[in-house]
Amino acid sequence: MGCGTSQSLQYSQNKSKKRLQQSTRATGTDSRREAQLLAAHPELKKAMVETTKAVEYMRAHVNDEEHVESIVDLLDKNIYSHYLELETRTQRMLLGNHLAKIGAATVFTEYIRFLKQLGYFSKKLWRNDVVWICTDFVRQSVVNCTDSSPKFGHEVVKAGLAEVVLDDLDNFANKDDNYSKVLVASAMHIIYNCSRVVENYELLNDLNAVPRLLPFLEHEDPQIQTITALTLAYITDKKNKQLVMSEETQKKVVSYILRRFREAVNVPNWRSDGFSALELASGIAQLATNDTEEDANKLVLVQEGVVPPLVKLMEHSDEEEQLQAVGAIWQLSFHEDNRKKILEEPGAVEKLKKLKDSPYEEISDSATGALYVLTGKGKDHPQRDSEEEDDTRRRQRHVMISYNWDHQKIAVKISKQLRRAGYRVWIDETNMRGSILEAMGEAVSNAAVVLVCVSRQYFLSKSCRAEGNACHVTNTPVIPIKVEKTYNPDGWLAVLVGAGLYFDFSEPKGAKAAMKGLVKEIGSRGKADARANDDDDDDDDEDPETDLRNWTTADVDKWMTEFNLKKDISGIAEITGAQLAFLRSLKEQAPEFFYQYLLNHMGITGLEQLTKFTHALDNAR
């Protein structure tokens, strides 16, 4: 196979181009948070100016052989050295984000392709193998910045560099010279770093990354084996999961990962053989997430002794390390056989309880979730027997919508249409924290049916898995809703939704037909009035705020009385139907401002009042 594109990749490339057009969601920190971080790190200004100069110089001299040597100097002084001088993870992330912003991923990709045309090992053009030295500097800069910046990692794949280095793996894997080994190592690190970015999942699969990486599970270098295993854990999908790892290779790789992990948590710099404790914990959590339907990886990891070093990592002073450790414990606890071992591990429960009170919401939520699963609270809700329930109890039940936050807009739209069709709907629109697992458990227990919005992000979410477990424990019926066109459920999610009929809301053009079918499938379950017409969804295209805008003072007063709002919320007394319509629209279009307004101008003083008003507004009709 030559250095160009193989014919076998042409179809995948066409699919990738479509993916690139769809891939618009931001990665890394949001712009406001990043601006705050940049303001807190003025020392980065010089590095950013000089990296910009280097990138612009490279952009201006792509395909120019005479400037290769000067570009080596710029890469060394303006990018590579600056990166190595940075002391914190945040500084390195910000520099990587800056490179993503100025288009460095595209420049690096074009320049590596140019160097490839010259010949990676050209000794005749320049003394000291300058082409090779330049190649090494560019690739190591990419390795460094993809390691620290998810934004840069996403831009690298979009720019086509993942395709270039996958070709290198195809071409240089079986060569024994040192140059080839260095190329393979840098290619593996680039793909590994990029695989950890969720937005790259489909892009890498479109490049057939999984089958092209499989041979490296048998590589002579255990570090390459481990990088391969961790990469595959991030990007393996349902159709090729069974191809990935033999039992013998799995044991060897897990043994190596755990050996490195144990060492990393017991040395001052928290690193072993080039791997940080943070990335090893993240990889362990991913191995446990992207699992078989029987959760075999979770069981093997705990049997091989992963829990003690994870408990040790929870003691780390850095919040990211704490978060990864707690998240891995939570993920492992979904296997029933693991819970006893985790509960019996000295210090495990005590540290989880301590981190439950962390001021950092993500850590607190993860610790709460882990304790929720470990202590079996999800089993407190009794199974229902639909044959023994009386009509009154059935009429009290609601339709619950379970979704990942990335697909909130679709889920909220479905909830509105179902309410208009006469259903009682339970949906968490506010991303409540802390007590949400308890509320979720009650919501599942009292649901007539749960609509599960199927997506890869739902599969990866530990909170969503907890909801799925609650459905299983309570024997609550589940209806799968497709919100991500290209994703087919695997692992635990495939078990939850089974082989039932999907209702496809992934594209707007099919949503109306999907809603009609969904209402028919739900039937009278969860209806406020069992006599309501199942065809109420025919007016889905009407503006849901129209009726509110036409409300009279008497209508508003009746609504406030029905939901007992007057006594509890002082700022609501003079509100009009038109204002309610505006607030409901604001809630969907600008939720952050909506909640700020309620707290600052409507006399709402706590979570209970906030929940009460939001519920009343959602059900105003």
Keywords, separated by commas or semicolons:
Rossmann fold, 61% helix, mainly alpha, 4% strand, 4 domains, 33 helices, 621 residues, two-stranded antiparallel ribbon, Leucine-rich Repeat Variant, five-stranded parallel sheet, globular
In short:
By secondary structure, the chain is mainly alpha-helical.
The biggest sheet amounts to: 5 strands, parallel
Structural class assignment: mainly alpha
Rg (C-alpha, Å) = 27 Å
Q: Quick check: average pLDDT?
A: 82
So what's the CATH class of the largest domain? Answer: Mainly Alpha
The CATH architecture assignment of the largest domain turns out to be Alpha Horseshoe
Count of beta strands: 7
Stated plainly, the CATH topology of the largest domain is called Leucine-rich Repeat Variant
Beta-strand fraction estimate? under 5%
> Helix proportion of residues, in percent?
55-70%
Strand order of the largest sheet: 4-3-5-6-7
Biased composition (Polar residues): 1-14
Protein name: Hypp5915 protein
Biased composition (Acidic residues): 534-545
Domain TIR: 399-514
Furnish the topology, listing elements before pairings.
Layout: H1 10-22, H2 31-40, H3 45-60, H4 68-85, H5 89-101, H6 104-118, H7 130-148, H8 150-159, H9 161-172, H10 178-195, H11 201-206, H12 209-213, H13 222-235, H14 247-264, E1 271-272, E2 275-276, H15 277-289, H16 296-303, H17 307-313, H18 319-332, H19 336-344, H20 348-356, H21 361-374, H22 391-396, E3 398-402, H23 408-420, E4 425-426, H24 436-445, E5 447-454, H25 456-460, H26 462-474, E6 478-482, H27 491-497, E7 503-504, H28 511-522, H29 546-549, H30 553-562, H31 577-589, H32 591-601, H33 607-618
Parallel strand pairs: 3-4, 3-5, 5-6, 6-7
Antiparallel strand pairs: 1-2
Region (Disordered): 1-33, 375-395, 526-548
Protein name: Hypp5915 protein
InterPro entries: ARM-like, ARM-type_fold, Armadillo, TIR_dom, Toll_tir_struct_dom_sf
